[in-house]
Amino acid sequence: MTRTDFEKGVQMSKPETPYRKRALGNRPLRPETLMMSYGFDAKLSEGAIKPPIFQTSTFVFSSAEEGAAFFRVMGGRAVDGDPAAPGLMYSRFNNPNVEVLEDRLTLFDGAEEACVFSSGMGAISTVLLAFARSGDVVLQSTPLYGGTETLIRNIMPNYGIAMEDFVAGAPDDEIRAQAEAAMKRGRVSMIYTETPTNPTNEIVDLALMKTLADEIGKRQGHRPVVVVDNTVLGPIGQSPLAHGADLVVYSLTKYIGGHSDLIGGAAMGSSEVMAPVRKLRSAIGTNLDPNTCWMLARSLETVSLRMQAAFDGAAKVAAYLKDHPKVEKVRYLGFLEPGSRDHTVHHRQSGEYYGSTFAFDVTDGQEGAFRMLNALKVIKLAVSLGGTETLICHPGSTTHSGVDPALRERLKFSAGMVRVSIGIEHPDDLIADLEQALSHV
């Protein structure tokens, strides 16, 4: 790992405690090590080596005064003598499993604070509503995850929030032109991006997003927040906060959960930028339950191992597909043309991490793609990504079927494009399955 918070010097906003130590003497501890104990004191839980599941809706106060103080702090009305952070109150606000998970999620990304949510879309919708108000404009890159596209394009306008978009791989001058168009429509309150894009693996330049936010802020008197969906490369492959993002969102369902057995989401950033997000989450109840938090804390212990294994397997599968006569194009990050804009930006932001989710175009369009998908024996035909098992789907008829066909054409979605998320099976077995399935095309 190279892009971690201790190397960037990011500090936690929460007070250091014996169970929130991040160094061994003068030696900073790596996130992989901290995942085993950070944020949890076994002495407070009968010596349990792992946090128990605190399956409770509410918590007992030691006194009426303590309860009053906790609610003042939670509501931003603290007075002298109140604690720095609210104690346990009610599981919509906080819970031991929630707090352990949120503490540990900050470690890979170098965030000050994290909030977890009932789904990835719960995180995204809460973040959007925390910063955008009626009359505002969201400047977004495209393509985004299909659910996010639908939310921003079709649902947010019902609340008076407009959008302006730019294609992720567009030249800088074209992106700037779209930013100008956005400012003419209203106050730009957010720049929302996903990089690499899902499912086409195009790259958004995060340094440019930060520059645009600064420039827009000077001109309109309000700096838009830069939000990056980092689900596709995950905290192992990329740290957007180190490259100009103000806030990072995740579908925890994907690589961080990593076992296709839960739904969750997260947002993280500085304490200042997270304050309105946390406040809104408490108000509208998009919080995550204790049992799922416990499962995610378990998954974080192996996220680095799982993702690296998937990355290694994907490189081998992509190399096989690249030369297959029934595959027209493989949209794998490791095949970006050296010297190209996307190659340069990707290596600046992510180094040699190429991920394990990519799309490839099968010959004979949708009919050819469906023939291949229906013939698979090992690879699972299902939506989602980032699980231990390899998953494959046809985005045009599933995850992105709600995206306007004209937009899909503009974004170069081919009829035969399929998306695959390589898991941790042996790559030779995956290649053998693809070989027999492609013979049906």
Question: Helix and strand layout, with pairings?
Answer:
Blueprint: H1 5-8, E1 23-24, E2 27-28, H2 31-34, H3 64-74, H4 96-109, E3 113-117, H5 120-131, E4 136-142, H6 146-155, E5 162-167, H7 172-185, E6 187-194, H8 206-220, E7 225-229, H9 234-237, E8 247-251, E9 265-269, H10 271-284, H11 290-300, H12 303-322, E10 327-331, H13 341-350, E11 357-362, H14 365-375, E12 380-381, E13 391-393, H15 405-410, E14 417-421, H16 427-438
Parallel strand pairs: 4-5, 4-6, 6-7, 7-8, 12-13
Antiparallel strand pairs: 1-2, 3-9, 8-9, 10-11, 11-14, 13-14
Keywords: Lyase, Pyridoxal phosphate
Cofactor: pyridoxal 5'-phosphate
Protein name: Methionine gamma-lyase
Overview of the molecule:
With 441 residues, the protein is an alpha/beta fold. It has two domains: 23-299, Aspartate Aminotransferase, domain 2, CATH 3.40.640; 304-439, Aspartate Aminotransferase, domain 1, CATH 3.90.1150.10. It contains 16 helices and 14 strands. It has helices at 5-8, 31-34, 64-74, 96-109, 120-131, 146-155, 172-185, 206-220, 234-237, 271-284, 290-300, 303-322, 341-350, 365-375, 405-410, 427-438; strands spanning 23-24, 27-28, 113-117, 136-142, 162-167, 187-194, 225-229, 247-251, 265-269, 327-331, 357-362, 380-381, 391-393, 417-421. The strands form three sheets. A seven-stranded mixed β-sheet has the order 3-9-8-7-6-4-5, sandwiched between helices. A five-stranded mixed β-sheet has the order 10-11-14-13-12. Helix 4 runs parallel beside helix 11. The radius of gyration is 22 Å and the shape is globular.
